[in-house]
Structures are given as structure tokens and as C-alpha cells.
Amino acid sequence: MTSISVSTNPLLQVLSQNVQTRGASTFLTHMESGKVLTYADVLAVAEKLTLILDAHKVAKKARVAFVIRNHWLVYPLLIACSARRATLVPLDPDLHRDELAFILEDCSPSLTIILDRVELPKYSGQKPSVVLSEVLKSLDASPQAQALDGGEADDVNLMIYTSGTTGTNKCVTLTSGNLTSNAQALAARYEVLSSDRFWCMLPTHHMNALMITGLVPFVAGASVYLSDILSFKNAKLFWQNMEDHQVTICSLVPSIMALLLKIFPKGQDVKGAKVRFGFCGAAPLSAPTWKDFEEVFGFPIYQGYGLTETTCWAVSIPITG
After folding, report:
1. CA contacts within 13 A on the Cβ side of 154
2. What is the per-residue pLDDT across 193-219, written as a single tens digit (0 to 9) for each?
3. Structure pTM?
């Protein structure tokens, strides 16, 4: 493992501190594949990814589109892009092909990473893409690494496409300074501990999941369980997953809260879950749903409001009690 020359890149500063103090501690567990990344692993993978980005001629200010949902690679890839002063563009692979073509033409990525057996729509200025299995194979095969030593706080490291209230996709650009400062503010406000375990069940091409169940635990030295998005198909396993992974903080949206109340009207169906609290954002939360959820499941829900343009939450409910 090489050292990090952090310069003034706040994302690398956080990673450097975590590797020094919690290098062997788990940052992320990918529930689908069973892949586990310690903080030291995040550094090692990010270092190798910089070589892959270099091989694909990803230069400063270039964009890397990641058209894959809820995969563990998204976080070390964000770090690698940050170190190269490039920009990560996470996209929903289930978008309508015309919509996806519009976004890809708009952001004009130098490199696009897709799932195997997926064919991208045609768009103007299209460059070759690489499938995920090839990237993972390159990571496994590479004995070399490249030290992370670049980037500044005002580099644009993330582009999120959001429809907002207009129904038309628009691009929001966020710097490493934006990402780190918002994550640190939320981690401090909610007294997130390094012993906390988060569950990310929302889509990682949206800012809510990337921040609340990604970068917030990252800056706090905590750990994350990353799954596919929660839906009616897998919601019946909600409390079993909470117990199995000893989740202490979960991130929800009002529709998920309403679904859980419907499936579990008498509360948790397991006895070992140890949830400290939950976050709720992304849509208006009605007072009855909020009240019913807290009473039925027995832990507080903290609401936040923000825009992708404000990185994530701009205002939020403080801790009570």
C-alpha cells in the first residue's frame, strides 16, 4: 500500500486519515456479491483504478460515466476520479434509451463503464465503453498501483443528472469540497460514530444514497451495507437484514416507510435489530406516516430537505432526546 500525498484534496485527506487510523476496518460490504472493502482496500482499489483511467486517457476535467446501479466500485472510482481531477457521472441503467442517450451526449464521457451484455444507445460523439467484468479483471491482474496525489477542493468530482421539478434532466456539478463539507456537517450533526453501520438501499445514481449512506459514513470512519434498491419484492426481508447486519442507521424515503408499515403493522418481526435512528428525505413525509412509523418501529426518524444543487440536505431536523 502506497502513501497518499493529499495536497488540498479533502476527499483524499479523509481517506488518508481513515487508512492511518482504521485501515483494517470495513468501509463497505456489497450484499449481492459478498465483496468487502476495508478503508485500506478502498485506497488500494482507487490506486489501481487511476492506472485504468490513465490507460483510457481520462484527463483532467474528463468525465467517467458509470452506468451501473448500486455496485461497490462506485466509491473507489469516485476517489480515483478525484485524484485525477476528473469527474464521475453515475447514471441509472434503467433509464429510457432516449433519455440515456441525451445524458451521455450532454456529458460526453471519455470513458463509460457498463454491465456485461448491455448495449448503450447511440449518441453523437460516442466513445468506446468498457464492461464491468473487464475493469474488475484488470484490478485483479494489476500488481502495480499509482499513488493518489492530485486534486483540489474546487475540482468538479461528481455530476448528477436530476429532473428536479421540471421533468427535464439537468446536470448538477459538485466539487470534492462540496462533498466533503456536507458529509462532515451531517456526520457531526447526527453524531455518527465509527461503530455505526449504515444500510444503503436507495439508488446510488442519486445524491441521497451517495451522501447519506456513502460519504457520511466515509468521513465518520463507519461502515456501509450496500444492497440493490428496496422494493416490494425484497421489503419482506427488511428486518431480517437489519438484524443480520446489525444496522444502526438506515436511510428511507416516505414510500418505503409506508410500505414497511403495511407489511409489518405490528412492528419488527425480529428481536435483534439495534437501530439508533433513520434518515428520511427525497420526498415530502406526511405527519401521520412519520408518527406511525416511529411509534410502530420504536426509533426516531430525522427528516432533511435539500437539492442536488446543495449537495444534499440543506436543512434538517436536529437530534432530540
Report:
1. 0
2. 999 999 999 999 999 999 999 999 999
3. 0.92
